[in-house]
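Thanks for the sequence, V.! I ran Dynein heavy chain right away. Repeating your input here for the record:
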Amino acid sequence: MLYFEFVLHKLYHIFVYLFQPQEEEREPTPPPEEEYAEDDLPRLQEEVNQLQQLFDQAVVEKHSLEMELQSMNERLKAANEMMEGLKSQEALWRKHVKENDCNELLLANCISASAFLTYCGPHNVDTRKRMGEFFMQVCEHHGLPLPKKKLFKNMELIEFLYKPLDIMHLEILRLPITRLMLENACYLMQRDSTTAWPLICDPTSRVIEWLMFYMKDQGLVEVKYSDMRSQFENCLADGSPLLVTDCDIKQLNKDKRFRDCIQSCAMFIGGKNRFKITVDDHEVECDPRFRLFIHTAAEPHQVPTSLAAYTSVIYFQQSRYCIEEELLDRFLAKEKARIEDDRTALRQERQENMQVMEKLERQMRDNLSSDVRLMNDLQATKKIADLKKNYDETVESQARVEVSESPIMQNREGFRIIAKRGAVCFDTTQYMREVNDLYQISYQQFLTLFDTAIVHSERSSPEEISEKVTSSSYFTTARGLLERDRQIYALLMAIEVEDSLGNIGPGEREFLISPNYSSAVMASLGYTQPADSRILQAKKPFDWMTDEQFHNLQVLANHFEWFQEVFERMPRDGREAQWRLLCDSEMPETVTLPDKLGDKKLFKPMQRLCVVRAVRSDRLMQASTSLFINQVLGKKYFGDINVDLPGLLRQSSPTIPILLLYSYEIETASKLFTDFANKKQQKTLHMTLTDNTMSTERSARRLIHKGMTEGVWVMLHNAHNAQNLLNSLEAILAEDKNTDSQFRLWITSEVNVTTIPISLLQNSIRAVIDTPKVMKDSILRSFTWFEPDILKQSSRPEWAIMLHNLCYLHAAIQLRARYGKGGWNNPSDFFNIGHSELMEALNFMITEFKDPLQCTAPDGSTTTRSTSWTGIRYMLSEVIYGSYVTDYYDQQSLSAIIDFWVSTAAVKKDFDVQKFRYKHRAAFFNPNVRLNTLIQALDHDDAFNNYGNLDVPEACHMHLNVETLLGDDQYVFTRLNKVFDAMPSSDTLSHKLFPRPPTPFDGPALAGISKYSNNPSVVSRGVFATASHAALKLRKDIELWEICHNMLQKVPKPWSRDYVIDRIRKNGDFTPFNKFIMKEVDTMSSLLNEIKNSLRAIKNACETDVFGDQLSEHMLSVADDLYYQRVPLAWCRLSGDSAPPLTWSLSMWLNELKNRCQFFQDVLQYGRDRNPTYWLGAFFNPRGLLAILKQEAIKHYCGDRSGNFEHFVFQTEVTTREKDHIQQPAQQGMYIYGIYIWGCAWEKTTTELMDSPPKSPGYATIPVVQLYCIPANEKPTVLDPTKAYETYQCPVYPSRIAPRDPILEMDVRRENIPATRWALRGLSATLRPY
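Predicted structure:
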């Protein structure tokens, strides 16, 4: 600063000296002439001589002055020229001095920059931006002087810390210079100011290449953490910088080798002499020039606090624009080399110009600030002028460079569409790790994919190249995803592709997840109508429209301008029929949208999807596929993705292994590999890994080296059992530099991210072998995996249709498992059923459909026989599929399904599925049909669109109700919400409402994806994200004290011990029944006392100064549940099997407790003899009551105890009466009520079972049931074969969420209907409506 002031001071004095006006000298008046005599001549001569001498001196002085004048003129001219030339530079210097006229102005920027570098490293880009602005606000709040260029407002961090030439140096090194990447660079370029080694969290491993480029001249040593041997000690001794990559942060936190080095960072930064530190169990002499960089693929929040305390955690994040710029440069370098070469040359010239300009400016300042008087030194003045001239020439050269760069940049922009699409693909792929940690991708891995896609594209236009990049990225990534996560990825990619094209507006992503969540977000952004607007004042226009549908449409019109006119026109001009068709249609995604909403020119795909989502949230999954994914990306982007082994082979190399992951298909992966190797006629080496020992690792290492030498394929099966081997695989593959090019390493492993290292996931070709979740995809894959000659295995006309039935049966069993306990009692049993079971069933079917079919007769001769349908059904239900079943009632249902599909009726042309209208395709009945023809018939849209989606309960013989829900929408859209939370904010994605991802809480996701989201069977499938957080934050907040106060008034009063004993004695003393009632009352009293005590303790804590840390964990857990208005888990444990689901409210549960207490009071009041009916659901242990009933029946039946006892069983008869109509106890057994049946309906007038009507609530209440015990041989089903054929033993469970251990079996029947029909429906009953 003083330097610039000194220069300006000298320039001022030069001007004063040159241009100060001189006073004019006045000539004196000459004296009068004197008269001279002759005597005066000598004197005059002497005077003349003196004057001559003076004249001569004057002439000399004149000449000298003329010379000096000429010199002064020259110096003046040079000074003028210099001053004219420096005017522009002077203006810049004056501006700089004015902006920084005191050092105090730097204080605010310095404090903010220091705070930013200290605290913001671990945060994402949005948090960094907010914190940077906050730091400046703090400085302003405390009265610090603020400069005109404020950091994080009109000046970036890199501009404050480094010179433009430093940034240009990064560009020359081919390092990205986008804002975020330069911000990341600020953290990594600190060499002498850091106080802790950088721990770089980079899930895509981009920083590795960045550091290698940046420090290529500094001898940086790179080593993987798992391969670390002596490199660490060597670098410490030599002073070489060390980059440790792919660190396991949990192991690093416990690693004694690094502990002392990490904690001694200050000794290296400030040290000048060598010193010693401890490495593991010995000391190593260190060079202070050593620098350590630690890289991990984990995210910052996963770093242990004990490790973060001694390191500088940095989140090396890339924005989509960063990726776009890098991909654009990469495309030009590979495909437009001439353009890139010209740009590189201009970039180099620009750097040289910048260096010259910096050097010249420095020299000019040095000369102007020197002690030389410029007016006395012409050479110095000319030197400064020459410097300025050279500086101006360099500036002109720089301008020419910029002019030359302009057309190159314009040509470059023509290919931005490719880079933008590539950036979208990479961004969506990398954020899939929010769904599952298994989905890891490195930046280098994507670059290889990007380059390959460009090479294999037709390159006729940027649009076609863009499409090739999209498809290649999608199918490569989707192949490595679990089946259930592929729709998340397809939908995410479609949304982001539309966003890159400018077709997504603010709040539309959020509306897709939850209209209420979108409303809150848009209101925070200011997109809302005034309270008195017509939209907010509108009333529901149609009586048939539900309140939820109208509310969602009103939200859409309130916050989105494009829907306002449509909303206002909705009740006009007969549009009601169009809207009703959309709202009531079974498949609204196929209906023409009302009021020209379907016009693609007027409305965008996302807007049309939002409209359907508003009125039909139950069809959100289907609409997102047909209305959005198919229209944005194409139909090929949704559906089953086969395991493309040839494609995997093409993408792999001897150093890049192929990783086959599976969940349940253990042997399928190995079989696919074996079949593919045989087809390729490739020699293989196979090893099944069973443990994680050193001997296993040595054997695998020898096998791999043998394969590398001989050029054969090596298969490591079940590699998840050998984690140490997986950690060292990359090092093993890199050991031999002369590997045969034919060598490939194949690995099969369970889907378990804890055993598979992230580095292996990022450096392998990955595919997941998973069972298709969609029935259509399952059937198609089964047919695809059949051998081409499968139709030639039998000449029977029904053989083709039998293949179809087998594939459908296989898919229906798996679909039923997707419904959880609504489909099977133990759905996990059926997860193990996969491709191997299908092939086993197929092989058995082939033997039964051979023509002729021969067998051995009793006499030993060979004879023909017909196909044994009973034998096929038995093998399928008991051996092949039934071997996995552990539940008796699941076995019944499985047998019923197999009986339905494996029968003579099921292979007829007119066969169909009741209530589903599923019919066989005509192609299956054509003689000599080919397998490809059958596959095409199944894959044709009409084959499945005639009756809607196959993924419905009717497809697996169940009824549609609130329990038969797949919950796919809950799974997909809550996770999509989580992905959006992790992505950086943009013009269309805002995190203003909730600036950071919310911390999950214990409880279900409350996003409200659809009206069924809170159903107990699907609510747990969601994850907690901002939509759930918004649902909690935006509800009416109730104080915890108020909750406790209100509940204390509603909790029933427990009975006193004396009162209970008194009533027991009046009701017949301590009989088994009375003892049972007494125990039940005691259990209820304990529960009520626990509730009251907890409520009082929490209420007292709210009223006093008792803080949370002074309450027990038990009380804190109860308080947390009460605050979120959930039934506390501690109370549910005391309730046992009668505990409610998570979605039940406190008021509903308290009302049930009140009714149960009233029932117990009636039993105590009237006793066994006068109480007419019994509510089984009121008891904590209803089995105890049934045991007493059976005990009394046996005692009554067997008056003579000397004989043998008969086996007694329960017999039930469903009456036509309700509990209020019964006044007297049953003469035999007892009357019970409160039983709910699931899977069917009950016709009260005829007391018969019936199929559930459409849109039933899921359960049906049956009238009072008479329950009594009789000997097993007297049961009607034993005496009457017809009743045995029609009677179904319906299991009765405590509830649908309790363990499936039946309390009793209830006899239900309908005349002329076989019992297998109800087994097919999965009919069961519960004591509670949940």
